[in-house]
Amino acid sequence: MNILIAGEGGQGIQTIAETLAYAAFLSGLDSSYLPSFGVEQRGTPSVAYVTISGEKSFGYHFKFADIAVILRERAIPKVSELVNPRTTVIFDSSTIDRSKIPSHFKELLGIPATRLAQEKIQPKVFNVVVLGAMSKLIFDLDKKYLWQALEHYLGKKFLKNELLRDQNTLALDLGYEFIFERHDYSKPIYKTKTSKIVDDSEGKISTVYPTLCKGCKICLLKCPVKAISMSTDIGFFGNPVPKIDNKKCILCHNCSTFCPDTAIMVEKS
Amino acid sequence: MNYKTMPKCYKNSSKPHFFCPGCGHAMILKQLGSTIDELKISAEVVFGIDIGCSLLAWDFFDFDTIQTHHGRVIPVMIGVKKANPKKVAVAYMGDGGGYAIGLQSLIHAAYRDDPVVAILVNNTNYAMTGGQMAPTTFPGEITTTSSSGKKSSGFGNYLDGLKLLSSVADQSAYLERVSVSNPRQIVSAFKKAFETSDKNHFSFIEILSICPTNWKTDAADSFEFLKNMEDKFPVQKYPLGE
Predict the structure, then answer these.
(1) Nearest to A217 among B19, B184, B219 (CB)
(2) What is the ipTM of this complex?
(3) The domain B21-238: what is its CATH number?
(4) Chain B contact for A15, CB < 8 A?
(5) Which residue of chain B is at minimal alpha-carbon distance from A218?
(6) Domain of A219?
(7) What are A121-143's pLDDT values in tens digits?
(8) What is the pTM (predicted TM-score) of this model?
């Protein structure tokens, strides 16, 4: 079985692909994993090729995927070459519009992973939610192996922060229990913004440029009055962009001084 | 698109830039841009960049930029200054280019008191190639090539380049170390450096920077790490007590 996972650097695509291949290996199947990405940077396309089979298999780039997982709209062009009428396509229905998906597929399954992760746990574990859902669908894999593989790759991080272990357990369970949307897909609530976001209220004008923001969250850290939070608007790099609460803002200009991407500023109106 | 958040000497068409999210380089270049704007010297500046993450500053500003060989940015900028003394030569490098492969160029420029503004960004690793161990890496710090922490025996302690330069630099040279945790201090250091360059003396600014991608830290942890760096590399001016 050929599985293709496509998204963007920084989403954790390679982590879940590696975990999936290792979990399949632990359960006695033969598996291979091949990463493919450009510059090691967040915001660039990242694709992983996983082959799982009962017989001996060798790692190679396959021509057609049996399962294609699309986690970011910008990865679609890269995926569509490998999708054929026998492919099951899984997509993140909370960020990708259904109409953007290539039309030649066997079955289209939606999972609003970004929304589920953000609402129930924390945004970063969204890849583990996908991993859980995917492995249930693919080979009804025992969760034991999956967890063992996840522990193998993320164990060091868990040791550093115990909270992460609980969050990942929750995320895996959440994905594992999730029933895929087959017809009524969720609305893509996380919208990609291309124009600047301006808020003129309380005597202050706050401006955020989603085309520049890379989501480093330094502004959140440096704001002395905690007036900045992450919004549901998605920037050019596929990350949520900050939102300024003008009421709380004291015009200290810390955000615009520290921002490496010159993406944020507040001024007097 | 016109961005009012950017310094005027930024090249708008090449933005968003190539640096990683939360990169210290981009913060420093922004302060450099606003300093150049404030001093109104963008027509005079020639900007030289080294190999390493610093080369991503290629096409970053709207003034002349030269990309040099690894560690050779200071000699090239000295050449530019010698050929055209009216220009302000800015040499921008990382700790790999300045403290490892290009250390002899840096030492000799400081010793000869060449009129170059040398800016060195220190993030304790070779970031562009994936975070390998550098001379500035602390003992115990985990990098790709020191997976159980750097060992002092065999790999040495950490290199304090500013201390080294201060013992060989000319009396009239200006040496300072600042940190990205205080952007306003960076601006004042840049101003002082340009002033020194006007008087035809060498100026060197080391900036302690953050590298969230290779340190594998988030925003809060990066600045925590930076605080740790500031303990080991004290933020100070040379000669001391000035």
Answers:
(1) B219
(2) 0.90
(3) 3.40.50.970
(4) no
(5) B219
(6) 191-268
(7) 877 788 888 888 888 777 666 77
(8) 0.80
